[in-house]
Amino acid sequence: MTGVPADWTAWRERLAARIEGVTPGSLLADDALRRKAALVLMDDLAAMHVGASHAEVIALAQSFASPIAPGESMTALGSRGPRDKVAAVNAAAAGWDELDEGYRPATCHGGLYTVPAVIAEAEATGRTLEEVLAAVVVGYEVVTAFARAFPAPRPLVLHPHATLSPIGAAAAVTWLRTGSAARVMQAVDVAATLSMSGPFSHAVSGALVRNAWAGAGAVLGFLASDLASAGLGGEPTGPVDVFAAGYGQAADDSELAGPHGSWAILDGYHKVYAACQYAHSALEAALELAQGPLEGRSVDEIAEVVVLTHPLAYSLDNRQPTTTLAGKFSLPHVVAAVLVTGRTDPATFGEELLDDPAVASLRQRVRLAPFEPLPAAPHDRPARLTVTLTDESATSLEAQVLSAVGGPDRPLEEDQVLDKITQLTSAAPRLASVAHRVVATRELDGEPWSVVLAEAWQR
After folding, report:
1. What CATH class does 277-401 carry?
2. Is residue 103 within a helix (H) or strand (E), and if so which, with residue range?
3. Over 70: is that where the pLDDT of 69 sits?
């Protein structure tokens, strides 16, 4: 095809060389890398546990369960089914509450696109915990490389859960099956053509199909791996055709020309707020005001809230969210909920406050505007809140957060992520115990993943 970037072939070769000859032992000899991979794995398992409590996820799992066959792999609900369908359920659960791990250098959730597929494949094929960790690192490396190579425009038009998830799942599953860089790249060429054009606007409007895109990507990742193995291959330029020519996401020439740095998973972030990450700086600023100058005051005294925000959040302006997904992707709702309650725990962004009269009223008084000039990374997702009161002098209160907790300059420490896992999984306390052992020790590395998983999800 015409329009292929000059460095495309060399970039692909460098990416393949990055994972060529990698083994679980050689990769995980780096203790920092192993601990980070373990943290991503267990953080996403905790998110699956929380998401599995929702009625829609339960219904999805039930629809995939077979009354005849016991199934190859286990969902977060304890049911069993075919590995690809199990991965779909677990991916939907992991991303449901916006508590899964993410990746800041590009719009990509590397863990969500790899972990559900890897753990389903590993359980079905008798792989070890060590092999699971290595596959997550490799899959994460590949999918984030594509996310950086084809940066999405701002504000977002397509959702990365749809566009990128097949690539992450295909790369991770194929590497777990073959250990071959060449086979991984062949599967990725196929997976790119199976990419989905899920509109980002569906997240803002609250269409719950958005929560299924990562799961669909897991299914497509398995399919891409099978297709490539059977000889139904794609073209090395396929990702350019899809992302640049099809989606209009121009290739980043500097990314294609540059060398790979450290393993991408080391740049992953962990979230404590159950809302879209693009809203985190704004909700932190709202909390500062709610627990400071607004403490003890009625929100009826607020005339207006102006939120200066970054381009990724410009579209998060739904003032009448009707689903929890819409609420998590609504800056007016997130800010109003925090100002009304003075809280940021997961329940603050759940269903209970969607119809709260005080929150609903305050949402209408929240206005978004650009934060200008926009600072450079890591402060490229800032927020400044200005609250104007109804008193005679129109008192103005302001709070600014340049980078929310979890960002590159304010990362959650390992103990903080483990504490988060403990808090989220109180109904399954063995999961937190297993998480501590998996992250802090290597004593389970040689154990079958099925054994580790069964203990983690034991009620």
Report:
1. alpha beta
2. strand 102-103
3. no
